[in-house]
Specification:
The structure is a homotetramer of 365-residue chains. With 365 residues, chain A is an alpha+beta fold. Chain A has a single domain, classed as Chorismate synthase AroC (Chorismate synthase, AroC fold). Helices cover 27% and strands 22% of the residues of chain A. In chain A, strands 1-2-3-7-4 form a 5-stranded antiparallel sheet, with helices on one face. In chain A, strands 9-8-10-16-11 form a 5-stranded antiparallel sheet. The first copy, chain A, has a two-stranded antiparallel ribbon with strand order 5-6. In chain A, a hairpin with a 4-residue loop joins strand 1 and strand 2. The first copy, chain A, is globular, with a radius of gyration of 22 Å. In chain A, 66% of the residues are buried. The interface between A and B is large, with 113 and 113 residues. Chains A, B, C, D: It comes from Schaedlerella arabinosiphila.
């Protein structure tokens, strides 16, 4: 399989390079009859747009999306949906030594090893701008989920060393600060941390958490297409993500079974869990409880400090990266994580439709 | 897509339930001409076999594998390879309340929600015995990797709270203790911890780490089939895994770019990295350095302590699980992690073959 | 993708060689709650079993199927179903020059070119016995279709030069003659033709037709997964099939639009077609009318006449094939065609479930 | 799987409607280092462009292609290639009763049944303009094949009742007549036939044949991904194709084994076949001989004669279709057939690369 397609029943295929003519996505398998306008998608793209705060690249891109196919009179037709975003900022410039040097922490070296050469303009396909296609597709997926009562909430759980503990979580504050943290106070702390860090010409990472409410139980396919396996792949496919956790995640490895098991009990005739260490997933399927996943994001590799590296010709050299780079990508990556989660969930909801003979009878008899 | 198939170019399809007649796997896409005998596979299966130590279930299963197709005169023919392991221990027994009660931490509830009913015999398809098929397939994949000079080393990095710090890592000791820890001393500590824990009728989890040496650079497909995304899905598809990390993993989120970037330098004409925070992966492709991945395993949900839960009829109840259960699955899961990693790597090595026109010319002209 | 898996949402993976230990199939994606016993599958296998008439190989095989997984208390559980058929007739024998010579019309040469060597025992994986796995899977698919009111009727439309014209079609006679022809009189003619042909140590082909009634309209996905495209691939994947037609098939190429278009009209409030030149398919989707497809089967390549060929060492030679071979495979291939059609239809019925938002709402809200 | 993606290792995803903003394709899995300019693709598109002769629609479309991604400095980079063709002729017009009536022979009825409504503007996604994406992708595939010495020749074997017998085949004349027939004399006959037919406000079909030279032996995967099965699906996915044949095709069903088997013999140290009844395919793999396949194309359903049909509201009515329609699509469909064949062959050539361990050793050791 080629790497630019994600999903089985609900599929997104993305394309485009950082400094190419445009970036886009084709969505296939979208159910017919979904109300869909460009604005629905634009709202998502605006959450990842550069220039939202002093902590993001100054690159000026309006990233306006155009729907080229798959809708008619404001509704999806069931056929493939093509989404296009033109790159405005593609002025040819002198890439200087970037063109002939491998930037540490970037894909320059590995792409060259794989393909024999590379598109050195801003990282080409390995650039963060590739995520525009994901977010455009994620917007459509979220739209479907909303119609089914499935709601995703995503935010920056931590920025560098500054973390929002569970007890300080404030849903309503997520969109009140530029860092999308669920605590304005922690966001302020994080901002000062970022200021200092930027003075050192350095960058940092963080943690993005996504919670999903309203997902029916039983979503996910045994044994290799488990809900957590699919979501994990989705999140790990985002450039800077180095770890993924579900529920208690790595902490679960230190717990005992008596602590980690979530006891079931009845409440108003429905099955509930007293705790949610499992993060809403049992045996690779949703258990009806809130889904909780986290992605650890590494610091932006592009920093202005001098770095040791090598040239394509195999000579040691020192590199200083100039130009516009996010000191932290976490705030802009929040909507990317939400998009990948949404794409995965719609795909699995569609796959699950044929899980019982009674579902087929309901639809075909 | 259905969930029992893993891989694209190199595929494994597994089947079988805990108390069914047998468990097996079909491998498709295995290159022709690979020397393969049942012993090659048996060696892997023996690493996950029950009854190896007092920390694993007493269930007696020899788990003998039979090759039913795909080989001729000791070599693979290029056609699908069918592997079969008969279940010996399937004596019909009274499953007591297990049949009508949802065990906390297990898939009983979610399978029932998905399918309308479930095979309650020992968890059916959601049982750990399902991994026999993975390990059988992983043995074949490892066999291929060895021929290409790619070597996997997998071990228990942590058992409950007892962890082996990097500086105490001893490769040669991994197979010298029943817990497959790379430190006999830490293994001894872990054993005493397990003894105490078992007295409390409790269970625990741990961390499994896998290192891959000899992998060429450039393996992994942009953008959704990244090496880490595929490996992450592979590991997260293992029942009890709640988190996956690559290189520094979650620690990377707290580092600065200047700390996390691995500087390149030349050594005897080849590109090297001074450090390996990235865990051998840049931009979703192998960078030629050692691959490092970790899976956090939750504690075994089956414990003998009384637990609160509900019945299929929606009544609150208390459950006491009897019978044979691993107080910790980490030691037996080590080879499962290695198998899933091997399956993923062979699949991506095959997919990578067509990455350059020069490769096609070399093969077809 | 590897070649031994068929289908996307409803998948079958087959394995096994002519003279290996066994042959089998794994079905994944089968909805839960389908009543399924070994007899349901055996009935299908018996239709392709050798030794049914003097026109089929004398090879003695009872081809008894065993269900190894995926069912519990007589119903499918939703997990992968493993089906096994042991090969009884695998006595090692002297394959004589077959082992070192390329049989005309067989896969000996092409398999050797692809893999570097081949399993020469009775054709190995390229043997007609491979279809046992397809038929076992097809039986399960047909079972699902029957529950949805979709009924397949398959028969030998022609045996060599003897064809059953539409006006002579007798449904009830299909199972009254050993050739599965819908006309006992034509079957008698065909039998005499076969007798004469066998005297000449020759073989012949024929045409198999399949009609599907009760298929809802709208099944099939635009643009590459069209109903006819998927069915065509399914039928052409059967060893000896050299052509596939839908409705008027090749005759349509000579018709005018005014002759070929099927006029719509209303009947008791439902849309009907006056004719069915289209064979029940418009724009790659079922139109609610009877599906009509035909497969042209080439003559059995194994004949007892001396044939010119070459050895693996590149020497010209003359070959005389001894032993048991079907002078015509059409009668036994009838159920193989029906099986492949059934597998395709179930796959597309499942894929179609998510075609409308209203279907998702019906199932999830 | 969704229907707008074709191929596994070499993939094309198409999108776009007849009267939407644009039509396009995304190619993924294209090897890096292939020289590729827009002109290479334009040359293919021009072969299907409307208005080439008086036998094709008068619709004016220049169908200029734009490469939006996947190339750098005139070579493919290995990442997804996005191709875009703007629709010029999308003037909103009164579609009259077309909007509320089901055209016989078209997908109007089936799309409405599947999705609950349809894009009635010129057939939307089911329009022949959808093939622009296929042809753009096919141009890239053909480009790869040429580099490997694989050459496709495609032409109109028959137009309505006028067929070019094998003995009259003239390769050099294919591009000398507007009908792409390999015989100028038969093309002249066909032209007069078409003139007469057009006077009757009627349409007709024909047969397209494709020959492939230079394909190595062993291409195609057992058992479901056979070369003929994959090619058959590719051709049958083209709107108007009702039958597909390989080699002798349907004639093979009437031959005897002694006539149909192609004898092998040695010529200058290589294995040859005395005849090619098999059409270059044995056991689902290429045998090194010329590949021969044929597609039977139905007559254009859009005719100006009054036709009986029904409205979306279920009333019988009479329909007269006005406007620009091809009386025959065969000439323009020639390049579509060639494109689908090329896409299939590249996909299988890439899949075949991992068929032997020695191939992996050659590439990785």
């Amino acid at each position: 399989m080629s790497g630019s397609t994600f999903g089985n029943r609900f599929r997104i295929t993305t394309w485009g390079e950082s400094h190419g003519a445009a970036i886009g996505a084709v969505i296939d398998g979208c159910p017919a009859g979904l109300p869909l306008e460009a604005e629905d998608i634009q709202a998502f793209l605006d959450r990842r747009k550069p220039g939202q705060s002093r902590f993001t690249t100054k690159r000026q891109e309006s990233d306006q999306v155009e729907i080229l196919s798959g809708t008619f009179e404001g509704r999806t037709t069931g056929t493939s949906i093509s989404l296009l975003v033109r790159n405005q900022d593609q002025r040819s410039r002198d890439y200087g030594n970037i063109a002939s040097v491998y930037r540490p922490g970037h894909a320059d070296y590995t792409y060259t090893q794989k393909y024999g050469f590379r598109d050195y303009r801003g990282g080409g396909r390995s650039s963060g701008r590739e995520t525009i296609g994901r977010v455009a597709g994620g917007a459509v997926a979220s739209h479907i989920l909303r119609e089914l009562g499935v709601v995703l909430t995503t935010y920056a759980k931590a920025v560098g060393p500054v973390e929002v503990p569970e007890e300080e979580y404030r849903f309503e504050e997520i969109f009140q600060n530029k860092l999308y943290m669920p605590s304005n106070q922690r966001a302020a702390e994080a901002s000062s941390y970022l200021e200092a860090m930027m003075k050192n010409l350095d960058s940092c990472g963080g943690v993005i958490e996504c919670r999903v409410a309203g997902l029916p139980a039983g979503i996910g396919e045994p044994v290799f297409e488990k809900l957590d396996a699919c979501l994990g792949k989705a999140l790990l496919s985002i450039g800077a993500v180095k770890a993924v956790e579900f529920g208690d995640g790595i902490k679960a490895a230190r717990l005992n079974g008596s602590q980690n098991n979530d006891a079931f009990f009845m409440e108003n005739g429905t099955v509930k869990k007293k705790t949610n260490h499992a993060g809403g997933i049992l045996g690779g399927m949703s258990d009806g409880d809130t889904l909780v996943m986290r992605a650890s994001v590494k610091p932006t590799p592009s920093i202005a400090q001098p770095q040791q590296t090598v040239t394509e010709n195999g000579e040691d050299t020192e590199l200083v990266i100039h130009g516009r780079h996010d000191p932290i990508i976490v705030p802009r990556a929040v909507v990317v994580v939400e998009s990948m989660a949404a794409l995965t969930l719609v795909d699995l909801l569609l796959q699950n439709m044929g899980s019982r003979m009674e579902h087929l009878r309901k639809l075909y008899l």
